[in-house]
Each structure stands twice: as C-alpha cells, then as structure tokens.
Design goal:
It catalyses: Hydrolyzes free adenine bases from 7,8-dihydro-8-oxoguanine:adenine mismatched double-stranded DNA, leaving an apurinic site. The protein is of the alpha+beta class. It is built from 15 helices and seven strands. It folds into two domains: 213 residues, Hypothetical protein, domain 2 (Endonuclease III, domain 1, Orthogonal Bundle); 119 residues, Alpha-Beta Complex (Nucleoside Triphosphate Pyrophosphohydrolase).
Length: 348
C-alpha cells in the first residue's frame, strides 16, 4: 500500500541511531521496550547502556538482587517496571532455560509484558506480523485516516490494531512497526507538528480538515491526588542517620526513604516538632530541628502530586545500626530523596 511504502521510505532516511535497533536479541529488545514505557528515549538510553553493561544476559539480571536492580533503575520512575523486569528475568532464566518465548502469544504470558511490548518483541526479534499500537501509532493513524474513536476506550486498541494490520506489509513487519512509531515520535508529534514538511501532507485527512490538533481524541482525565510528605532525617553525634524500606504496596515499593510523617496539608514547624518528639523519636534527646527545603518540594507522579518537606533532627545519642553518608548513597531511593541527599549536600 502507498501509505506503508512512503512511511518506510521516510523511516529509512530519518531514523535515529538507537542501539536496540541493531540487534534481534529478544533480551535487549525486551529491556529497551520496558525502559521506554512512559519514558523518553533520551532519558532511557543511559539506563539501557548501564543495564546491558551490568547485566549482559538475562541470566545476569536474574541472578542480581532486587535491591541492585532498583538502584540501577533509580531515577527512571515507575518502579514496578523494574520489579517485574527482575521477576520475569528469573522466570526466563530458571524456568525457560534462558530462552525467550518466540511468539506474540507466548510473550504475553510474561509478567509485565502487555500487548504492545509482546508485539514489539515478536516483530523486532522474530519478524512476526503483529502490529504495535502505542501513543505514537494512535496519533499517526487517527490523524491520517481521521479516526475520531476515543482512544481511552478499550475497544480503540482493537480498532487501531486492525487498521495497522491491514497496512503492515507481511514481508516486513519489523520495519513497518519501527517506522510508524518513529514517525509519531519525530514528525507527527503531539503538539504543533510541522505539517509543511510532512511526507503525507497531500493525503492526511486531519490536515485537510484542519483537525490535526484535535486528534487523537481522548476523553478520560487522570484524577490527581495531592499528598503531603514530611521526611524526618535523624542525625546522631557520629553523623549517622536512619532509613526505612517501603514495604507497603503503592508508590516506591521496596525503595528506601527516611522515616515519613504523612499529613493532609503542608505542615508548620510546631506541628511537625511535636510529632517528632511524641510519636517518632521519644527515646532520643533532641537538640535541634530544622526544616531543610525552605518550601515544599513538589514531585509529580502520573496520578499523584507529592508535596515534600525535609526535616533534620539532631540528637545526643548514637543510633543503633546507624548509616553513614557513604553507605547511604548505595541504597535505592526515590529520585526526589536521592537528589535531596546529593544536591543539598546533607552532612550526615
């Protein structure tokens, strides 16, 4: 079909030089696809190089501790991806003898692998003719064909998959999938694409109807919850501190943090000081409390906005099993806490 031919020609002339495009190794392709979920290529690239250097095979990844995996993932966000990555690596290494499933249907059975990721691995590693459908594909097809289907609806995935399947050349599915995603990432971008240089500017229905910025249509709005975190940074006479592991399901599961006081609003000094003395550290002699950040740090997650304050508490006594500044940095933290430790040069 003309659409596919033009698209692939554009791709071959304009594609980015990305390391996972130079291999059919399903391990590296799987790794890149998991990393690039909810993540820009520029941000994910250094992590890909670090992971493939530290864990050159799925067996190396499987044999690593979860804590080491989370530490290397630190700053990439959506940490459930890292936990699922590790568990899936263990399943492949120990249950499948290190061999990845070689079909879309079997890949779907892996933990953390959905329809998009399974399609990507199946087509890029095994040249299976199965379409990938991500945000880029929704955008390109909805604009080119003027498809007004609400992409927030479950049925939309099936509709766009069928359309992509019709367009896909059966003898070259991998290149087609790469091409349509790359076109959405580089040319048919979400906001204000430059349609004057687009190879489809004489045939794109949305451009002809002046609907480019209206498509794709998505109705569902993400409800954002505001949460208020007060991190309590204990400092003893040796300069050591105390951290805890988040063991409850939810954000930052199995990452480390300072003792946490969560409130329903930004708290003042008197309130936090009373909580520190009465509820958190009544066993210690407190000689000073200081709010470190000046104003609350706002950290945005997909469904939550965190308003974070850091409080340093100096005590007379020695913390049993306290952690010094050097060892502190070896633990996997949420990036907002790690940045605080680094950028504020907290002397512990």
């Amino acid at each position: 079909m003309e659409f596919s031919n033009i698209l692939i020609k554009w791709y071959l002339q304009n594609k980015r030089d990305l390391p996972w495009r130079k291999t059919t190794n399903p391990y590296q392709i799987w790794l890149s696809e998991i990393m690039l979920q909810q993540t820009r290529v520029a941000q994910g690239m250094p992590y890909f190089f670090e992971f493939t250097k530290e864990f050159p095979t799925v067996k190396h990844l499987a044999d690593a501790s979860e804590e080491k995996v989370l530490k290397l993932w630190q700053g990439l966000g959506y940490y459930s991806r890292a936990r699922n990555l590790h568990k899936t690596a263990q399943f492949i290494a120990y249950e499948l003898n290190g061999l990845f499933p070689d079909s879309y249907k079997e890949l779907l059975k892996l933990k953390g692998v959905g329809e998009y990721t399974a399609a990507a691995i199946a087509s890029f590693s095994y040249n299976e003719a199965v379409p990938v459908v991500d945000g880029n594909v929704f955008r390109v097809l909805s604009r080119y064909f003027d498809v007004e289907t609400d992409i927030a609806l479950p049925a939309a995935k099936k509709e766009f998959s069928s359309l992509a399947q019709e367009l896909m050349p059966s003898d070259n599915p991998a290149v087609f999938n790469q091409a349509i995603m790359e076109f959405g990432a580089l040319q048919c971008v979400p906001k204000n694409p430059d349609c004057t240089i687009c190879v489809f500017n004489d045939s794109c229905a949305a451009l002809q109807k002046k609907k480019v910025n209206q498509l794709p249509f998505k109705s569902k709005k993400v409800k954002v919850t505001n949460r208020f975190f007060n991190y309590l940074i204990l400092e003893d006479v040796l300069g050591n501190t105390l951290i805890e592991k988040r063991t409850t399901k939810g954000i930052w599961y199995n990452l480390y943090e300072f003792p946490l006081l969560e409130t329903d609003h930004i708290s003042d000094f008197d309130f936090v000081a009373s909580k520190i003395k009465e509820d958190f550290f009544p066993q210690y002699t407190i000689i000073g409390i200081e709010e470190c950040s000046g104003t609350a740090v706002k950290h945005k997650l997909s469904h939550q906005h965190l308003h974070i304050q850091f409080w340093k508490i100096k005590i007379k006594e020695i913390i049993k099993d306290g952690i010094d500044a050097e060892k502190l940095k070896t633990f996997p933290f949420p990036i907002v806490i790690y940045n605080f430790i680094e950028n504020m040069e907290v002397k512990l």
